[in-house]
Amino acid sequence: MPKRFRLTRRFPVSMTEDGYRRLKKFASEAGLDEGEALSFLFENFGSVTDEDALTHRLRLFNAELDKRKR
Question: Residue 2 above 70 pLDDT?
Answer without folding.
Answer: no
